[in-house]
Amino acid sequence: MFAWKPVLNQSGPTEFVFRVFTTVPEFQALLFLLFLLLYLMILCGNTAIIGVVCTHSSLRTPMYFFLSNLSLLEICYTTVVVPLMLSNILGAQKPIPLAGCGAQMFFFVTLGSTDCFLLAVMAYDRYVAICHPLHYTVLMTHKLCVQMVAGALGLALLLSLQLTALIFTLRFCGRRREINHFLCDVPPVLRLACADIRVHQAVLYVVGVLVLTVPFLLICVSYVFITSAILRIRGAEGRRRAFSTCSSHLSVVLLQYGCCALVYLRPQSSSSEGEDRHIALVYTFVTPLLNPLIYTLRNKDVKGALKKVLSTKGTSEAL
């Protein structure tokens, strides 16, 4: 197990800076407003999901319990990144201390890993609901649901702590180094090291396999059984509803795992820093924004609950 040993070499950097998106003031203001709008939409959309699930007894099922936890993760995930990113878009480059960079990396990797594990848990929930409907309430108890969410978070914390600690035992050159990214992600920080990083890259690859490949394979196996069970359903309406429920989850899975795999599982020799930054924008903004949209637009229960909330609020304001 790796111990946390921050770099104390006086020749190493005491802080990092992020590379700016653009130096043109007009474009800076435009990007600031765009990212701020996306961030507010993410907060509002995911908060609405949490609020609806918590206030409607009809949605207090394992599926919506996991969905509300996913929304909470998305809020925390983007909040770790976006406020600091917004503060660096306008004006001069603002430095981030070495410890602050390590803290952001730790929370970013932890929340992102938990997100991936939770998507696998949600696939298992759909597998039990569709393949074993008569035993669903017996198998998917509230205690088990809480344990699975806690297990996902615990495993993510363990992997993130080890990875972050290992990376920040490295020596970085210069007093101030520029990260070609908008956050302290693992690949761009590794590129700034003044040492052999082959072991660190190997550890990153192993963590990437554990966080991305293994859960994705479990999701694929679950969906093989789910598809087989759906095709055996006689009624066309029943098959349509089952496919509709699963397609929402599958859309999120493909977007999340696909983008993350391009950054963390692709060989470093075949990737560029600019590409990684652009791909990171997708899983920082697009995925957290699409999650509530996909689940609300394709889910009648959530749409019905939201309509009730809006109609109740409209009635109370009219009175």
From TrEMBL:
<feature type="transmembrane region" description="Helical">
    <location>
        <begin position="106"/>
        <end position="124"/>
    </location>
</feature>
<keyword id="KW-0812">Transmembrane</keyword>
<keyword id="KW-0552">Olfaction</keyword>
<feature type="transmembrane region" description="Helical">
    <location>
        <begin position="278"/>
        <end position="297"/>
    </location>
</feature>
<keyword id="KW-0675">Receptor</keyword>
<keyword id="KW-0716">Sensory transduction</keyword>
<protein>
    <recommendedName>
        <fullName>Olfactory receptor</fullName>
    </recommendedName>
</protein>
<dbReference type="InterPro" id="IPR017452">
    <property type="entry name" value="GPCR_Rhodpsn_7TM"/>
</dbReference>
<keyword id="KW-0472">Membrane</keyword>
<feature type="domain" description="G-protein coupled receptors family 1 profile">
    <location>
        <begin position="45"/>
        <end position="295"/>
    </location>
</feature>
<dbReference type="InterPro" id="IPR000276">
    <property type="entry name" value="GPCR_Rhodpsn"/>
</dbReference>
<dbReference type="GO" id="GO:0004984">
    <property type="term" value="F:olfactory receptor activity"/>
</dbReference>
<comment type="similarity">
    <text>Belongs to the G-protein coupled receptor 1 family.</text>
</comment>
<feature type="transmembrane region" description="Helical">
    <location>
        <begin position="64"/>
        <end position="86"/>
    </location>
</feature>
<dbReference type="InterPro" id="IPR000725">
    <property type="entry name" value="Olfact_rcpt"/>
</dbReference>
<dbReference type="Pfam" id="PF13853">
    <property type="entry name" value="7tm_4"/>
</dbReference>
<keyword id="KW-1003">Cell membrane</keyword>
<feature type="transmembrane region" description="Helical">
    <location>
        <begin position="144"/>
        <end position="168"/>
    </location>
</feature>
<feature type="transmembrane region" description="Helical">
    <location>
        <begin position="202"/>
        <end position="226"/>
    </location>
</feature>
<dbReference type="GO" id="GO:0004930">
    <property type="term" value="F:G protein-coupled receptor activity"/>
</dbReference>
<keyword id="KW-0297">G-protein coupled receptor</keyword>
<dbReference type="GO" id="GO:0005886">
    <property type="term" value="C:plasma membrane"/>
</dbReference>
<keyword id="KW-1133">Transmembrane helix</keyword>
<keyword id="KW-0807">Transducer</keyword>
<feature type="transmembrane region" description="Helical">
    <location>
        <begin position="247"/>
        <end position="266"/>
    </location>
</feature>
<feature type="transmembrane region" description="Helical">
    <location>
        <begin position="29"/>
        <end position="52"/>
    </location>
</feature>
